[in-house]
Batch of 4 targets.
Target 1
Amino acid sequence: MELNEQKLWQKIHAFELDEPGSAFKFSDRLARENGWTKSYAKRVVEEYKKFIFLCCVSQQGVTPSDPVDQAWHLHLTFTRSYWTDLCKNTLNREIHHNPTKGGEQEAAKFDGFYTGSQKLYAEKFGQQPPSDIWHDNHTRFSDINFQRVNTGRYWMVKKPRFSVYSLVLLMLFIASTIFIQASDTILSAILMLGIITVIIIAVYKWESDPDRWKNNDDDRTGGGCSTAGSGCNSHHGGQHGGHYGGGDSGCGSGCSGCSSSGCSGCGGGGD
């Protein structure tokens, strides 16, 4: 990073989303709304800050991973924190969330922006983005079938991943069925069913833990933004990023940094 970029990153990194003294913090809400562990949500918040930094220094445009986009969506609902504390007082520019317009051309463009975002991340932070938060391009733009569900009314049952654990469970089920059929007493059958149930629940919870799959591809989608700094005309840099399915539709967004043409926002960190 250049000196002005280092100063900008220090300001963004020091920005606090979890309000001190709050019983229900930003990261708590982020974890609850996405079914994440609190530790994973806090890591996503840190990656969100890095994404905001990339928005400011990018000359082309950046698109976040889906977990980062979820943090961005939530932060936008904290209007005073986002528009006043972050954009106005910390960045000195507005960063707008612009959904994709959909279509093959948009899909190809956003795929390129997502690749560029990860390259810029590695360049500025000296390391690759974490793969359990910044998923590969295929996962980023294909796992998009999300809906808002009332978990108080509906049961959420995760589709099992085919793995060695699934095979073990299948073998256990077959062996247990044979044991129960061969058992002389109902007590033995009930005991075996109880053991099977405990094992299935334990394996399900273990495989469902977001932190368990740090090195694998998770099921998230993304977004982006446009920026307007002091001296920028309208939303300088256009619209970027996005979710898409089949090249026709989308519900994502993207972010572009200011170019050198009259844009001095983000504390000088974008040029």
Target 2
Amino acid sequence: MTAHPEAGTPFESAVAELRETEFRDDITVREIATPQGLAPFAIALAADVRPEGDGESVYGTGRFVLLHDPEEPGAWGGSWRIVLFAQAPLETEIGTDPLLADVTWSWLVDALDSRDAIYHSESGTSTKTLSKGFGGLAVEGDGAQIELRASWTPEGPFRPHVEAWAELVGMLAGLPPGSEGIAVIGARKAVRD
């Protein structure tokens, strides 16, 4: 957290709500260090889909940051802001789909709406990346990746927002809602950084 709020404050209540959220078994969520300088109060979470023994995931990952600034920055339209990141490797053929970026954004909106999450001032980008290895990396072949970065101002309880984020991370990794415990056939190869 960026600052240590007093017990019983709205931020401390929000943190408790996030920490009490249960996630599907095949998505590992943990608290991580928050980005500095974005707000007086913040909590950040990381998610990995079906991580390997070393904690890395070949399926997908994400970050969720809840920011709180009692001064209500004008761009936020309130005292709270959620910032998220989600990414997953893709089969190259899927990465070339011209509607992929639009579908990715719609999955976030659908996940929020299905939980009756109240929000406004949303913004974001959906980026598809195609790569081809050369030289020593030629053996890795072609790759593709989808990445979504988004932010919005939440209203009401925070749990629906973090649950929607976790669903999005799973969806990008090929795990639709209700598929917990179902085997994933052929892990997609992670794109090189």
Target 3
Amino acid sequence: MITTLAVSGYRSLRDLVVPLGRLTVVTGPNGSGKTSLYRALRLLAEAAQGRLVATLAAEGGLSSTLWAGPEAIGRSLRSGAHAVQGTVRKGPVSLRLGFSGDEYGYAIDLGMPGREHPFPLDPAIKLEAMWTGELLGRANLFAQRRGPLVRLRRAQDGTWREGLTHLSPFDSMVTHCADPVDGAELFGTRERMRNWRFYDALRTDPGAPARRAAVSTFTPVLGGDGADLAAAIATIQAIGDAAALDEAVEHAFPGSRLETGPGGGLLLHQHGLLRPLGLAELSDGTLRYLLLVAALLSPRPPELMVLNEPEASLHPSLMPSLARLLADAARRCQIVVVSHNETLIGALGREAEVAALRLDKDFGETVAAEIDAPRWVWPKR
């Protein structure tokens, strides 16, 4: 389980270190940095997929995603005695992301590419580190990248060997040095990171992918856009917890049940109707709830699942049902929910032990004033 998330220099997250629990609810007012925290977690997962640099470039490049305020916010700035004078930096340009848990930790430091590089929006990876345990130290470090050089510690005798000597600044050691034999620890960590799941694009509009006809095939994991909803539900009925699926539908829509229709489609039988409704006929809220059911009842739960505003399109009456689903899912995997819906947050608190993480803005910076920040050590360039 991930116990600590650290972000430095990304959007409004100037220097944020926060704890994560088994079920964490991230809340706060609009503009407080909730979405930035969600994106930071997703960027870490993109590193394991080899897409981190491209994703940051798509956000406008490093210069557009960096913290836009001063490097340090002292008393004189807060009091107004001194005005902010641009964003001139004394230290190197740096966007740092990291996490750790009981078993392993990872951190990456990105900076600006050289002037001669033909793709100026692509950030360059300056440093990476991977270690065992929660806090980085010399003794527990097992993989390190400085510039183009990657070094790996041998598990047998603790000695170091060179992994790669000319790794591109736009490639991560996580994707290029994770060998199941010579880099087993790095390989294992990468595979666990690749298993993280994120849901923030489950559309319910008339053209939503979930409403279209699709081939029904073995689908133990709902896709990020929900296009394979019918197949994911059929897989839960075949090899997953079919009783929990029926209970989730009954709890939200009393007297209703799901059925796999001809050709692999999904039908919802509702009390009082003469025929079942297909996915194209369902209301936005009903479809959204079924998408969340398919995600949270996955027969192959991930190590970490992150949901951004899952309550969107849902009627307040469905919040207790969603809270029950989230609480049950947290018994199988770690859950992070980003939400500002007080009804859902209250219902979650009644269903499970929740680690509350409230974000606020202070002088343009995202802060979590109500929690004690865990210890964290960034690898040095």
Target 4
Amino acid sequence: MTTLQDVLSELSTGRLQIVDLTTPLSEQTPVLQLPAPFANTAAFRTETISAFDAAGPAWAWSNITLGEHTGTHLDAPIHWITGREGKAVHQIEPARLVGPAVVIDLSADVAANPDVLLEPAHLEAWEARHGPLPEHCWVLLRTGWSERNTDARRFLNTDEHGPHTPGPSVACARWLSEHPAVSGFGVETVGIDAGAAGGFEPSFPAHHYLLGNDRYGLTSLVNLDQLPASGALLVVAPLPIVGGTGSPARVYALVERA
């Protein structure tokens, strides 16, 4: 039996399960809101072309409007000024979009303080327990934030001082960008940076370091609580938009069950 046949067999028996990590897209999907004078992305919207009516008696279809960075989406290097000479979405090698999932759980800390930062010490503690980060891995920050994603106000969590959401520190963003095994970094929040990251030096360090060093970002993930700390396989499937700075993506994980 081949490896692929083994996978199909394990899926059929339930020993291998697929966990969907993607937020469904709808008009209610929260999107990033930048302050004036910056321009904002379009919210998700559908427009019916026909629905078994005179415009199309035997078929239904719709147009959709959305930004590249809507819902669960991938950030490509050219999304940020430090990566502007790097890859667009369609240029990312498929092998970089499939890899081991490394799950760092800060959900208890975030429940007490939404501004909690992921630090290199958290990643070093993971390595001490599970071994070195595996090649082509995706580091996923579990925070419990996806519980908020049906309420834009709670999800964006912004007050007069700005947004309050967890994310990596400057040191951690640089650590991830320089680690040779890391393909990308994923979060449950609206962006890969912490809410306070506009005031960091450099500002928005996850974007600055990761995208500037051919790493990729994933946002608005769900169901990270269903993944083990190590051992799952992540699959990221963005649209191969030519010249795309990002793309909505279907993201899922293969998980072995006892």
